[in-house]
Amino acid sequence: MALFLSRFDNKVDRKGRVSVPASFRADLTSDAFAGVVAFPSPGNGGAIDGCDIDRMKQLSDGIDSFNPFSNEYGDLATAILTKSHRLPFDGEGRIILPQQLLAHAGITSMATFAGRGATFQIWAPEAYEAYEAEATERAKAQADKFELQRRDQMGAGE
Amino acid sequence: MALFLSRFDNKVDRKGRVSVPASFRADLTSDAFAGVVAFPSPGNGGAIDGCDIDRMKQLSDGIDSFNPFSNEYGDLATAILTKSHRLPFDGEGRIILPQQLLAHAGITSMATFAGRGATFQIWAPEAYEAYEAEATERAKAQADKFELQRRDQMGAGE
DNA sequence: CATAAAATGGCATGATATCCCATGAAAGCC
DNA sequence: GGCTTTCATGGGATATCATGCCATTTTATG
């Protein structure tokens, strides 16, 4: 399973091409497909969600971590599949962000890649800054939840 | 499972490189990745948290058990995963601390590694001294309380 | 069918990270 | 107590990566 970490701000050239962070590429390359699967994030308005093809397959199979039998999520999964784009790497590890996604995220000259473990997001840098501030506030307010999570992990690891 | 012990003060050279204590390295080396995963400590302001890749994977899996499009997932991912860095060893067991982490911890010429069992922290030495003094105070207070409780228990029992 | 526009692939470049070897100090060993 | 090994540290050589530029192919358009 992929583990996307860290943040990278890369330039979008005139043709809409962006270098995918080198450390992401290994996890995005498989026999099935070498590239990114991207779609407008259902959770965060201005973000693009990105993942590898295997995760998208899981979503399609309905065996993702959220409840596959719920009709609500079934609709969501279907909508995601319809809005998803396959973005293959060129020889230098770049992808082309389609106009539709660029517009959705308000990306012009720079793109922020934010690692999120099994997935990552792509943002306009300013939008990400704003989101980060917001999310950090919420995370602080809910530190108790975070602690619980950590304890679960520590328990599981021992 | 890793067991990081003791304290080490190592030099940060002109290129931002630091030797990871030799006794830490075995626990930080696996098939998946040989190096440190580091992120700003959510608890202690000026510290950097360090761990091995397996622990980070567990944390990521834990976060992934939330709905990927929920605030819980997003907030935790933003607070930890996006702020984490993979820092691979060079041939001599050194890592490069990114500018962002150096700034967060206020590290300039020296870095203090503090073993904490399954994880460790990296501090600016002065900051660590201050933290340790404070923590010692708290520990004393806890020990006193513990003593009192013990006496109560013994008193009640007799 | 011809021409312009756009997509795609390939190559060049500068910055940065990685590799490799050297040195000295400390620790362990015989 | 002298010898050997491990480790932290330094510097220069090399490779990788993001990115710009150009060539070639493909797709629209008149």
Name of the CATH homologous superfamily of chain A: Transcriptional regulator MraZ domain
Q: What is the chain-wise order of helices and strands of chain A?
A: EEHEEHHEEHEEHH
Mean pLDDT figure of chain A: 85
Which word captures the global form of chain A? globular
CATH topology category name of chain A: Chemotaxis protein chec
Strand line-up in the sheet with most strands of chain A: 1-7-8-4-3-5
CATH class value of chain A: Alpha Beta
Query: What's the architecture of chain A in CATH terms?
Result: 3-Layer(aba) Sandwich
Q: Give the DSSP E fraction of chain A (strand runs of 2 or more residues).
A: 15-25%
**What is the C-alpha radius of gyration of chain A, as a whole number of Å?**
16 Å
Report what the structure shows:
The structure is a homodimer of 158-residue chains. By secondary structure, chain A is α+β, with helices and mostly antiparallel strands. The first copy, chain A, has one domain (7-125): Chemotaxis protein chec. Chain A is built from 6 helices and 8 strands, in the order ββαββααββαββαα. In chain A, the strands form 2 sheets. A 6-stranded antiparallel β-sheet of chain A has the order 1-7-8-4-3-5. A two-stranded antiparallel sheet of chain A has the order 2-6. In chain A, a hairpin with a 7-residue loop joins strand 3 (35-40) and strand 4 (48-51). Mean pLDDT of chain A is 85; it is low at 153-158. Chain A binds chain B through residues 1, 3-7, 23, 41-44, 49, 64-66, 76, 114-119, 131-132, 135-136, 138-139, 142-143, 145-146, 149-150, 152-154, 156-158, and chain B through 1, 37, 42, 53-79, 81-86, 118. Chain B binds a DNA duplex (30 and 30 nucleotides) through residues 10-11, 13-15, 17-19, 21-22, 88, 90-94, 96.
